[in-house]
Amino acid sequence: xxxxxxxxxxxxxxGTLQPGSGLLGNLNPDYFSWAGYIDGLMMVSKPGEQxxxxxxxxxxxxxxxxxTTDLLVVFYSTTEVAPGGSVAAHIKHVVxxxxxxxxxxxxxxxxxxxxxxxxxxxxxxxx
Length: 127
What we know:
alpha+beta, elongated
């Protein structure tokens, strides 16, 4: 269902990655040259239902030019469950936005790539 009132999002260019910088300090800048993210809210509902739940979507794009590919990391977090929908009976607790943000930040700050072999094979190149 389309809902123009829920087109809330933030786009950020995190720029060139530097060792030990920000949320992505553990990523090796030899592999990742650039990062950017989109953080937004969307309204979703099951087919045939009018009840719309609000879901936060956080997408992080990491550029890997030497492998001609990018790494996309996506998190979804339900921020509001509409009463009367079929989902409402199954979700007992909605994680507060601040807690979800803290969890996402902790995961991103610990993100590490131990081997780039999968990217080498996917791009058909050699490291």
